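Researcher: Here's a chain I'd like modeled. Treat it as a single chain, no partners, no ligands.
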Amino acid sequence: MEELFVRRNEGKEGIRTAFVFSCPGQQELKSGKLVNGQTGKNLDGMLAILGKQYPDIFPSENRYDYRITNSSERVHFKAFDGRTEPQMKEITEKDNLLRLKNDLSGYKYVITFGRCAAAAVSEVCKMFDMKDVVIMYSQHLSFLSLNSSIKTDVNGDPIPRGDKNGTYKRLEAAAKKITDQMK
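Model: Modeled as a single isolated chain. Structure tokens:
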């Protein structure tokens, strides 16, 4: 049960945007699909926001139309191995970085979600010539990460606890952080 049998999501031909997340977890292990559960729903919500502003880069609201990979292929979740994230040595293994480089080959835009994904892509960029790739960084899209890292909406107004539109406002703010990196 150490590795997920779905290594990456291929995505649709012609879409030149790829997403890098941390690692497969319990939901991914059960479903066999990457970025499953609430994080996947949040990614779809963010894609709806991003697609309105940059339809050429984000032409679909469906996450599975994009290449999706992880900073590590190894499955991690609390009940399995006590972890929810890979260790840095796992991410920086030469074979893992080569796998990630191959997964991202041919993509113009790469968005990393979370600290581990950012670290892995940064290492790949150091090892391999990826100067033609636009890399953008975002926090992870789990509820825990969104709620703890985004306290204000795109206008700078606080998002009160229990706000029924709070998740959407946080996704808008996260999307803005991504689009700000494109300028």
